[in-house]
Design brief:
The protein has about 300 residues and is mainly α. The chain is built from 12 helices and 4 strands. A hairpin with a 2-residue loop joins strand 2 and strand 3.
């Protein structure tokens, strides 16, 4: 059971990274960015190619593996941020200028999602590609009945660092004050001198960076393909709703809680591959019983 508990925590951390992108965008625009799955996919491909070519051409001593991993994290995050900002620029901003209905934003996001999905399928092929891992599973430690690998520890350290970084950025910096001001009242924030378009683009960039890094970790643990972001992004949306959509710390906690709820029951039912079924059942239950999630605070009112 301890092994499933650990698996739930580490998988949940990935969901939390993706959920941060959902909750930041929702907190500012009150919209769900359904193209966020392709941000994750873009980061996964960026990390895959970075690892593939650097591991192939460089001597992979342990210090070099660490440097390669840091480079892969930055490459995946930056590509994810660029794709997210592109989505905001071409799929959202023109609609904001025309004060389009909310439903139009949803349709535009779905259109951007399918465009990027099929573009990746056309350019990279539709067959999964294996990825090189800079830190392999041969480094493992026994904790009770659970095996903890170096990959798990790297995932834990990186995600905790990014969580603290984003929380500090939003609550203690100038750009964070702008994000919270726009989330609370965009029109008043604009009258007070806040550049709303720039703030929204920054919000997409931060969420995109998190999604891109999550894509790297998914690529390192499974395979890379054009559709790799679909299921993790939906489960991350569940995590965001579970924690309280629009709440940053809620997204962090919601991902881990979702991972535990998904994987620990497998110990008793003895049926693998039921994890997504359990995850989406949790989404339905949360929407029926507590739509505001565990914390239930929006970004604009949380600080």
């Amino acid at each position: 059971m301890l092994q499933f508990f650990a698996l739930g925590i580490f998988t949940g951390l990935i969901y939390s990274l993706v959920a941060l992108g959902y909750t930041l965008v929702y907190g500012v625009l009150r919209l769900i960015n359904f193209a966020h799955s392709e941000v994750l996919m873009s980061g996964g491909f960026a990390g895959y190619y970075f690892l593939h070519y650097t591991m192939k051409s460089l001597t992979v001593s342990t210090p070099m593996r660490v440097l390669i991993l840091i480079g892969a994290i930055l490459a995946s995050g930056i590509v994810g941020a660029v794709v997210a900002v592109g989505i905001e620029r071409f799929a959202y901003r023109p609609l904001r200028r025309r004060n389009a209905p909310k439903l139009t934003y949803l349709i535009s996001a779905i259109g951007a999602s399918y465009f990027l999905l099929n573009l990746a399928g056309k350019e990279f092929g539709r067959n999964p590609s294996a990825t090189a891992q800079p830190i392999t599973a041969k480094f493992a430690w026994k904790v009770g009945s659970a095996n903890i690998t170096a990959f798990d520890l790297v995932l834990l350290v990186v995600t905790l660092f990014l969580f603290v970084l984003v929380d500090t950025l939003v609550n203690r910096t100038k750009i964070g004050r702008s994000i919270r001001a726009v989330a609370q009242d965009a029109e008043t924030a604009s009258l007070m001198g806040v550049d709303v378009n720039s703030t929204i683009a920054s919000t997409f960039a931060i969420g995109g960076f998190m999604g891109g890094v999550a894509g790297l970790f998914i690529a390192m643990s499974t395979t890379v393909d054009y559709n790799m972001g679909f299921t993790p992004a939906l489960l991350a949306f569940t995590a965001a709703v579970l924690g309280g959509i629009g709440n940053i710390r809620g997204a962090m906690v919601g991902g881990v809680v979702l991972g535990l709820f998904m994987y620990v029951p497998i110990y008793w039912i003895h049926q693998p591959f039921y994890e997504p079924v359990i995850g989406f059942a949790i989404l339905v239950l949360v929407l029926l019983i507590r739509p505001t999630g565990l914390f239930g605070e929006s970004l604009g009112r949380s600080a």
